[in-house]
């Protein structure tokens, strides 16, 4: 089945009670028992299970080809719960350019609690190999990476992780299951911030973990999710379900525009560099072409000059919202160095762009006028 069909099939779960094609939102926190004290279904209390969450989890597992999925209240709650399933003394290897919140969890929450971790350049397999030890339990990848769009060879890193019995996790938020299927490349767990492309409209926070097997780790994560209550609200689950229905068509249109924008930027005299895995100039163009269905709708651009020029350029755009986050239908632009503060490794002249569903030539004209104004 093509992914387009799969996404619709996976989210098509009519309400068994009424036949409603789009199931209602079950706001009830609790589920009643009959005279014999039996529950009428698998639901008892919404922290443990809820019909909308269960429907979303089934869909998420299907999209990534996993055995089982768990939905969380945010991407960070998903990452947090996976680390909580480890034990003090365990070691994590993480991409140095992972989403800033993931190493922040390790540093500020789990290091005091007894986890150790090593940051590596995931594109350098020798560096990954050096960092992996006997007590390494998790190798955490994210590809394409933020904000330099570096590409990790998932199959190779998963093989290295497995050589010591560790699991390989892929934060697949940027690629989405439309563009990249980490479980089929050897990864064991996929993590998503569903806040981004899966919901797609910048109006809901959510996260997910998808497991290749319903193994001991998956069951421990399920237990922690239920005990800690790091769960999404029923309405949020319903919104993510709705987003998934249009995911493939959104990604396709946004990717098409991103390619045109990247090629335009690359030729402009005020541009120093464009980072986009769909450009042949990208250092991992070949790997990206092999590993991803298409290069996606995220790119970053370095403006000639420094932070003042980059900020001036961003300030003169009229069609791009100057905001953090990504994956919505409206184009966003962000100066990452401002967000990350003085110790950032991100070049100060870099802007990260999330391409939305606007017409490509309108976005290009807007970028052109803002760039031309710098000359
Ligand atoms: C946004 C994001 C996260 C965190 O997700 P939240 O839903 O904001 O908690 C993690 N990883 C990546 C790649 C992200 O873009």
UniProtKB/TrEMBL annotation:
The modification N6-(pyridoxal phosphate)lysine is found at residue 196. GO terms for molecular function: cystathionine gamma-lyase activity; cystathionine gamma-synthase activity; pyridoxal phosphate binding. This is Cystathionine gamma-synthase. The keyword Transmembrane does not apply. Its cofactor is pyridoxal 5'-phosphate. CDD domains: CGS_like (cd00614). InterPro entries: Cys/Met-Metab_PyrdxlP-dep_enz (IPR000277), Cys_met_metab_PP (IPR054542), PyrdxlP-dep_Trfase (IPR015424), PyrdxlP-dep_Trfase_major (IPR015421), PyrdxlP-dep_Trfase_small (IPR015422). Belongs to the trans-sulfuration enzymes family. GO terms for cellular component: cytoplasm. Keywords: Pyridoxal phosphate. One of its GO terms (biological process) is cysteine biosynthetic process via cystathionine. It holds the Pfam family Cys_Met_Meta_PP. The keyword rRNA-binding does not apply.
């Amino acid at each position: 089945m093509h992914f387009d069909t799969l996404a619709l099939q996976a989210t098509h779960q009519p309400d068994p009670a009424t036949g409603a094609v789009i199931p209602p939102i079950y706001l009830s926190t609790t589920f009643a028992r009959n005279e014999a004290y039996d529950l009428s279904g698998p639901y008892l209390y919404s922290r443990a299970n809820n019909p909308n969450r269960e429907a979303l989890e089934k869909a998420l597992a299907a999209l990534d080809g996993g055995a089982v999925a768990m939905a969380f209240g945010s991407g960070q709650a998903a990452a947090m719960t996976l680390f909580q399933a480890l034990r003090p003394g365990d070691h994590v290897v993480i991409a140095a350019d992972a989403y800033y919140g993931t190493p922040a969890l390790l540093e500020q929450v789990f290091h005091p609690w007894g986890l150790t971790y090593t940051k590596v350049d995931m594109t350098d397999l020798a560096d990954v190999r050096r960092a992996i030890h006997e007590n390494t339990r998790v190798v955490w990848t994210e590809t394409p990476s933020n904000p330099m769009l570096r590409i990790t060879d998932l199959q190779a890193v998963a093989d290295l992780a497995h050589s010591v019995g560790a699991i390989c996790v892929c934060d697949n938020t940027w690629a989405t299951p439309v563009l990249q299927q980490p479980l089929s490349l050897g990864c064991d767990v996929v993590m998503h911030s569903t806040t981004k492309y899966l919901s797609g409209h910048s109006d809901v926070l959510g996260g997910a973990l998808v497991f290749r097997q319903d193994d001991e780790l998956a069951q421990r994560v399920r237990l922690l999710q239920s005990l800690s209550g790091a769960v999404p609200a029923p309405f949020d689950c319903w919104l993510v379900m709705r987003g998934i229905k249009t995911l493939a068509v959104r990604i396709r249109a946004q990717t098409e525009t991103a390619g045109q924008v990247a090629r335009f930027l690359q030729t402009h005299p005020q541009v120093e560099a464009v980072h986009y895995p769909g450009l042949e100039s990208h250092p991992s163009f070949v790997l990206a072409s092999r590993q991803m269905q298409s290069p996606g709708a995220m790119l970053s651009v370095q403006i000639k000059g420094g932070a003042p020029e980059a900020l001036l350029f961003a300030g003169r755009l009229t069609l791009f919202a100057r905001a953090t986050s990504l994956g919505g239908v409206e184009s966003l632009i962000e100066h990452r160095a401002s967000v990350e503060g003085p110790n950032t490794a991100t070049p100060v002249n870099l802007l990260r762009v999330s391409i939305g569903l606007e017409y490509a030539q309108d976005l290009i004209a807007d970028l052109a006028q803002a760039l031309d104004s710098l000359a």
